[in-house]
Amino acid sequence: MLERPSEPPILTRAESEIMSVLWSRGAATVHDVVAALSRDSAYTSVLTMLRILEKKGYVSREPEPGGGRAHVYRPRVAATRARRLHVRDLVDRLFGGRPEELMVGLVEDDALSRAELEQLRGVIESRLGGSAAAGAAPTAGERGGEAAEAALPSAARSAEPSARSTSGDRGKKAKQQKGKKHVR
Questions:
Q1: Same domain for 63 and 110?
Q2: Of 55, 84, 147, 156, which sees the most CB atoms within 10 A?
Q3: Helix (H/G/I), strand (E/B), else coil: 131
Q4: Rounded CA gap, 177 and 184, in Å?
């Protein structure tokens, strides 16, 4: 019987920021990662985080081709795989294993534009086998997993913390939504 490889653990916010750099560049040294991060980070802190990511199975390292003491870090886990793992974890922990609750939250989010909502409609229609409009998008099986994710609005698939609303924004929205009930 074949054993399914274990899933890598969930990333912390700092780890996901470092992985975003590696996913966008393909490979980087510690100095490259420090320079690419949006916040000030110490070399030793980034090095420690990269070593943790290596132990978790997210990255591999090899000596820099030019010699010297530096190492080049490469992602071992694809960004799409990590995102799916995190979405499954989020749905399990915060939505009781009910992905439709997450979708309702995304659709009701004021941050999604009409165009993004129409993209979501197209993805849903293609999964249902219907035709949302002429030239409906092919199903995820026909396109492959990464193409299906690419069809989602950027706000729904972004791993970058800056693409998400701040906790203050969520608090305002929660107060506005208080009292509204979902009708199914």
A1: no
A2: 156
A3: coil
A4: 17
- Do residues 63 and 104 both lie within one domain? no
Q: Which long-range contacts (CB under 8 A, 24 or more apart) does 73-80 make?
A: 73/22, 73/27, 73/28, 73/29, 73/30, 73/33, 74/22, 74/26, 74/27, 75/19, 75/22, 75/23, 75/26, 77/8, 77/19, 78/23, 79/19, 79/20, 79/23, 79/159, 80/145, 80/146, 80/149
**Among 171, 169, 157, which residue's Cα sits nearest to residue 82?**
157
Same domain? For 150 and 101 the reply is yes
Number of domains in the chain: 2
* Domain ranges, residue 101: 96-170
- State the residue for tokens 């290596």: 54
* 81-92 confidence digits (pLDDT tens): 999 999 999 999
The 10s digit of each residue's pLDDT in 118-142 is: 998 898 899 998 654 444 444 444 4
Predicted model pTM: 0.65
Q: Is residue 5 part of a domain?
A: no
